[in-house]
Amino acid sequence: METTHTLTKAQIMNALEERHSPETQAMLSAGSVAIAGLGGLGSNVACALARIGVGHLHLIDFDVVDISNLNRQQYFIEHLGMKKTDAMQSLLKKINPYLDIRTDCVRVTKDNLTELFTDDSIICEAFDDPLAKAMLVNGILQLFPEKKLVSASGMAGFGSSNTILTKHPMKNFYLCGDDVSEPTYGNGLMAPRVAICAAHEANMITRLILGEEDI
Predict the structure, then answer these.
(1) Is residue 89 domain-resident?
(2) pTM of the model as a whole
(3) 3-state secondary structure the chain
(4) Which residues constitute the domain of residue 130?
(5) pLDDT per residue over 84-107, tens digit each?
(6) Which of 55, 118, 150, 154 could form a disulfide with 178 if both were Cys (CB 3.0 to 4.6 A apart)?
(7) Is 2 within the bounds of a domain?
(8) Rounded-to-integer distance, Cα 205 and Cα 68, Å
(9) How far apart are CA 100 and CA 33, in angstroms?
């Protein structure tokens, strides 16, 4: 028989502090991160940050969950047809129901960058489309040069895990991936390598929350 366990906020916090230390967890709990794109990258990043208790997550995506997403994204058949923002929020609440989660089911454009990201100290770019990636990165660097931006490029296929790296090309900008691999026939986006790149993004975000700015 399936049972449902309800944990109090104090129980979850005590467990996190036991793993991370109270001092580290206090910084993670105060962290504020926007995740732009909730696909293969963003859904994995969001789950990782929720599991370590990053307290304030801003989820942004305009899309709905499709069967083509299930090969690499953190969704299930029950989420098909749901807005990704709603589906991801429901998943994260199963990990930690006490997180502060804000959602915006909108397409990110040049016109709404300022409105969307004003309150976020760290921004994770997690788009699939190269043009959307470039728009967001260039826009954030121009409008919010003081904010930390973690982006990704190059994670397709099943190439070596060791070619995916985190780089620091300029102040406050971090780039994860291999920089070159693009989806092609027989070498598309696959769960393992996408998740490796997402983990690079999530770990760099964690380091930034904890005051570590080097890679």
Answers:
(1) yes
(2) 0.96
(3) CCCCCCCCHHHHHHHHHHHHCHHHHHHHHHCEEEEECCCHHHHHHHHHHHHCCCCEEEEECCCECCHHHCCCCCCCHHHCCCEHHHHHHHHHHHHCCCCEEEEECCCCCCCCHHHHHCCCCEEEECCCCHHHHHHHHHHHHHHCCCCEEEEECCCCCCCCHHHCEEEEEECCEEEEECCCCCCECCECCCHHHHHHHHHHHHHHHHHHHCCCCCC
(4) 9-209
(5) 999 999 999 999 999 999 999 999
(6) 154
(7) no
(8) 28
(9) 11
Give the CATH number, domain containing residue 55.
3.40.50.720
Residue 215 lies in a domain: no
Is residue 188 in some structural domain?
A: yes
Distance CA 180, CA 187 (A): 13
Number of domains in the chain: 1
